[in-house]
Specification:
alpha/beta, Rossmann fold, 2 domains, 46% helix, DUF4143, P-loop_NTPase
């Protein structure tokens, strides 16, 4: 079963119209290749090269001549971080075509490590490239495929996990996915980092889903230094497996929490790391609340789009907002997340909203109804919250 991804597909098509090079980045197995091949099937003459295949890499031994021969067609280069020396060749080809007044040379780069790829590309393709991040399947896409929210929450948004025949099949897929990252990707992207240690840290982060980062405590638990913990987390963030949610840091004359909160981005991976295979096991596990919080936060960050800053707010006095969206330098939306069918925000949420002068106050629960709440807040289902966030934070530039 292939679940349609209309939003990212439309965004990718727009990007290809606007720039000669587009980089589509995302974790492994998130569906980048499927989407690229779908576009390739529609664009006659598209060339697809998987740079993990030796045969495809050999075609690029004389990259300039080979790629110049594809003029007028889209060229897809999958796992492009395998050949970083290729970026200089792409720059030359793009500039040559521009100098001749042509824009017929287009490249779609697929990569599974964001920072590593962006750092390499930015040195050579600045001004010639658009970046898009492809997330796992989201709530709207799952709903359109008649997949309910709890199933998406339990299994996560990786297509093969979400569409598995049974929960057991999904769980086994995610277990293998975790092993694959530790056995293959960590040694490839960070050969000097011990994969087993990073695996233990990944599990610790899942156990502490949504906690503020305490590198010293994590380092003590693993027997390594706090700076080393930072480097391990950098890698997991780079692989788009972990999110650092930064604190709001404006000047209000209050003592604010300054450490980021750490989330394993995909809820299904949280559950696999903690050996949770069924919804009943999840509902009875201590991580149920933090897991739901991380799932909702990741969903709403994707809904808000790349031009909005996601933050959290917490003071030493206990005023707290789970998720703040800041737009044009101003806090615009406050989100409280509760795993309850009739959720209620605590006093600290409203104090924090008053601190930041936020009028858009949304409480996302696990119920099936939307209704007004006290303090100017609104209780929303996750799907309703996605739609409302998009409306409040809509870009001034039409799609």
């Amino acid at each position: 079963m292939i679940i349609p991804r209309p939003r990212i597909e439309a965004a990718l098509e727009r990007a290809l119209e606007r720039a000669p090079v587009v980089a589509l980045i995302g974790a492994r197995q998130v569906g980048k290749t499927t989407l690229a091949r779908k576009l390739a099937d529609r664009a006659k003459g598209t060339l697809y090269l998987d740079l993990e295949r030796i045969a495809d890499r050999r075609k690029l031994e004389d990259a300039e001549a080979f790629l110049q021969a594809q003029a007028g067609h889209l060229t897809v280069l999958d796992e492009v971080q395998r050949l970083p020396e290729l970026f200089a060749e792409l720059r030359g080809i793009v500039d040559d075509r521009r100098a001749g007044g042509e824009r017929s040379m287009q490249f779609l780069l697929l990569g599974s490590a964001s920072l590593d790829l962006i750092q390499q590309v930015s040195e050579t393709l600045a001004g010639r490239i658009i970046y898009l991040e492809m997330p796992p399947i989201g709530a709207e896409e799952a709903a359109a495929a008649s997949i309910d929210i709890d199933r998406l929450w339990l299994r996560g948004g990786f297509p093969d996990s979400l569409t598995a025949v049974t929960d057991e099949d999904s769980y086994l897929w995610r277990q293998a996915f975790v092993r694959s990252y530790l056995e293959r990707d960590v040694p490839m992207f960070a050969p000097r980092m011990p994969a087993a240690m990073i695996g233990r840290l990944w599990t610790m982060l899942a156990n502490g889903q949504g906690n503020t980062l305490n590198s010293a405590r994590l380092g003590q638990g693993l027997g390594v230094s706090a700076p080393m913990i930072g480097r391990y987390i950098d890698l997991l963030v780079d692989l788009m497996l972990v999110r650092r949610l930064q604190p709001w840091s404006g000047n209000l004359g209050k003592r604010l929490v300054k450490s980021p909160k750490i989330y394993v981005r995909d809820s299904g991976l949280v559950h696999a790391l903690l050996e949770i295979g069924t919804l009943n096991q999840l509902l009875g596990h201590p991580v149920v609340g933090p897991s739901w919080e991380g799932f909702v936060i990741e969903t709403l960050i994707e809904a808000a789009g790349p031009d909005v800053a996601p933050l959290f707010y917490r003071t030493a006095d206990g005023a707290e907002i789970d998720l703040v969206f800041e737009q044009a330098g101003k806090p615009k939306v406050a989100i409280e997340v509760k795993r309850a069918s009739a959720p209620q925000a605590e006093r600290g949420f409203f104090v924090a909203c008053d601190d930041l002068e936020i009028e858009n106050r949304i409480i996302v629960g696990a119920g099936a109804e939307d209704y007004p709440a006290r303090g100017g807040a609104k209780v929303r289902t996750l799907l309703s919250a996605v739609k409302e966030i998009r409306e409040i934070l809509k870009s001034p530039f039409p799609a």
